[in-house]
Specification:
The chain has 292 residues and is an alpha/beta fold. It is built from eight helices and 15 strands. A seven-stranded mixed sheet has the order 7-8-11-12-13-14-15. A six-stranded mixed sheet has the order 1-2-3-4-5-6. Strands 9-10 form a two-stranded antiparallel sheet.
């Protein structure tokens, strides 16, 4: 299995886009890139806008290799929208190259909040005539050649009964390596997400960690739930590599906040990396540095 980070906070944008290739499958996970319209009361710096365009070109390259596209949920940093946006690096028809001819695995809309459901319907209207096939992913298992793909049931975007939405995770197992991609579970805060990871027992876990900067959305107890949930996974004895992503990296001191996890991972001989680490680059947390 080959997995390639494409875009993410450690690379200067909001995203978790990743390309995964096995003998039988070439899939783009969460093909979206965006910027926060406001952070610290400030709009994106020109460097952030340039970075979106740069990483959009990388995304386009890996989309050209892909047969499948997976969308975990409908926040705009996780899929390519069917309209023009300077903060997402899209023109009016950028989405066509993302979805045309692809098998698209989508989060089922049945349990979404209003805003995510509205985005889903807008996306569906745009892609239903150009996608090769649309599959509602929640709870499904697919056998693609010798590659097994396991989609989780719907999980909360944070703690149980979270108002911020629902997400689906994807596990890819080619017989040699098992990768679990769990974006935006916020730790995970929800015990059901912990249980799912422990049932999959991945070698590599790509996870959306605790959102330390969202103190106005999540309580201290919620954040602590996220740290404890991640500790339960790291302590499970099966992980080889933990890739921390997304909301966690929207503050500069994220390693200090996750010191308990980093210490546990060291004891368990679990390698902890970011997308930037995987690419051999230094972290470039442009959003977290916006006020500088």
């Amino acid at each position: 299995m080959r997995f390639v980070p494409i875009a993410e906070e450690s690379l200067g944008v909001r995203s978790v886009a990743m390309y995964v290739e096995t003998r039988d499958l070439r899939i783009l996970l969460d093909p979206g890139i965006s910027l926060a319209p406001r952070r610290f009361g400030l709009p994106p710096h020109p460097r952030e806008i340039s970075r979106v365009l740069e990483l959009r070109r990388v995304l386009d390259h890996y989309l050209s290799l892909s047969t499948h596209v997976f969308i975990s949920h409908y926040h705009r940093d996780h899929f390519t929208v069917p309209y023009e946006s300077i903060y997402m690096g899209t023109g009016s028809d950028t989405y066509v190259n993302v979805y045309r001819g692809k098998v698209v695995l989508l989060k089922d809309p049945k349990d979404l909040n209003y805003s995510q459901r509205k985005r889903y319907y807008g996306l569906l209207k745009a892609i239903r005539s150009i996608a090769r096939e649309i599959i509602y992913a929640d709870g499904k298992t697919l056998e693609i050649g010798s590659t097994r793909v396991v989609l989780s049931r719907s999980l909360p975007h944070g703690p149980e009964n979270s108002k911020t939405g629902r997400v689906v995770s994807i596990a890819i197992d080619d017989g040699d390596l098992k990768l679990l991609f769990m974006p935006d579970v916020q730790g995970p805060m929800y015990q059901g997400a912990v249980d799912h990871a422990n049932s999959i027992k991945p070698d590599v876990l790509v996870i959306g960690g605790p959102p330390f900067y969202l103190s106005h959305v999540f309580s201290e107890d919620d954040i602590e739930l996220g740290i404890k949930g991640l500790a339960k996974i790291v302590g499970g004895g099966y992980l080889e590599k933990l890739i921390i992503t997304h909301h966690t990296l929207r503050i500069l001191e994220w390693r200090e906040k996750l010191s308990e996890i980093l210490s546990l991972a060291s004891r368990k001989r679990v390698v902890v990396e970011t997308y930037a680490d995987l690419l051999g680059r230094s972290e470039d947390l442009l959003e977290a540095r916006r006020k500088e």
